[in-house]
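We emphasize that the prediction below concerns an isolated chain of 452 residues; any contacts that depend on oligomerization or on bound cofactors are therefore not represented. The input was used exactly as deposited, without trimming of termini.
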Amino acid sequence: MSRGRTHAQKRRMGSRHRHILTAPANERVCSPGGSRPSVVRGRTRRAVRSRASGRFSDSRCGKVGCWHAQGRVSRSPPDEPASGQSAGVRKDRRRRHRLQDRAFLRRIAASTIIASMSQRLLSVADLRVTRPMISSRVLGSAADIQKRFQEAKPFRHVVIDDFLETDECEALLRDFPRFDDRYARDEHGGVGRKAVVERVSTISPFYAVFYKYINSESFLDLMSELTGIPDLIADKTLFGGGTHDNQNGQSLDVHIDFNIDERRMLHRRINLLIYLNEEWEEAWGGAIELHSDPHNPGADTVESFLPVFNRAVIFETNEYSWHGFRRIKLPPDKQHVSRKSFSIYLYTKERPAEETVAPHTTFYLPQPLPENIKAGHTLTEGDLLELDICMQNRDGLLKMYQKLLIEKEQRLRDALQPNRDGALRDQLILSSRSMKFVMALQRLKYRLRHPF
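Result of the prediction step, given as a token string:
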């Protein structure tokens, strides 16, 4: 059998050994420990090239950048000999390395594209926050709207149709949260037919953008232009505000709102109600009513407005801004409809002295008797139902105010009770000047605890 090799065999062997490095005799290379050079006498050494940095390292010491070994470098891993492997194994290894490199590059490209798209989306969101969401028609007629607000009766208010840009209002309705019993607790602690979601930024991405806008300086400045009340302050917690979903059978007794946010000691000044109902009829009830004197039904004048889509009702809150709506009565084929709105309450640090009173909670008035309950009228089953609802509302209000009165009396007793040192606690009945000073201190404390 001939020991001679064919031309193809020699070519394959040349391809196998051309990356093998033979170090010259007495060549000084790095020692495995890296502490001192070692001498290698005429034996084969391999250096592995790092694909990440393009530099060389000695296969025995592992030092990156070791250039003591001269010549070409084997691409074989340090723990595998380059010789004695078939061409197929080397080819598979090279193909695997190429695939790994390509996969790595694809991941890098994908992450770069995703980061770029995220940055663009954030930029678009920032633009949506900075640009006004209120209709351009409203912006152009701010002076006329302020005049209507200042001259309105029974107290300062204004009604603005097409208040928001159409796309923005449709997005509010599209993402409006479904009715949830967890958010339907009423003043008496039971589950009612009104759901209020205050943390609106968690509803959807658009609601998060809208939340940022209604807390922005541009929105507050615009509300000051529309009402003539300067230096308005937003409530970032939307206490009592946010989305309001009123189901069939729900009503809102005529009331005046609490006058001071005792967390920050700010005066409540403006209610902004944005309605989101694409269909609503007067016979269904639920129209917002502004009263002049609900204590005297004979002399009471009422302004009523239907809660139709993209209508905004803005009114000042004070000691005579009585408002509410009558019970919702939907027809049988409209039971799926609900009265949807978005409520925003704005505050100021000060208010006119003639309007300033001690802090109080929301005051409700029981609903009056239905108009058809008169002398000589024969009661029907529907009349009895209306009377029963009126009595239940009245009893519920009495229980609520009794509870509030007991709690206030207990706080007063705790304030006047001496402590161990015999000194009175520092909760005293304050004069108007002292009250303003305490309110300023409370605002400072709140800002220190809640830096926004």
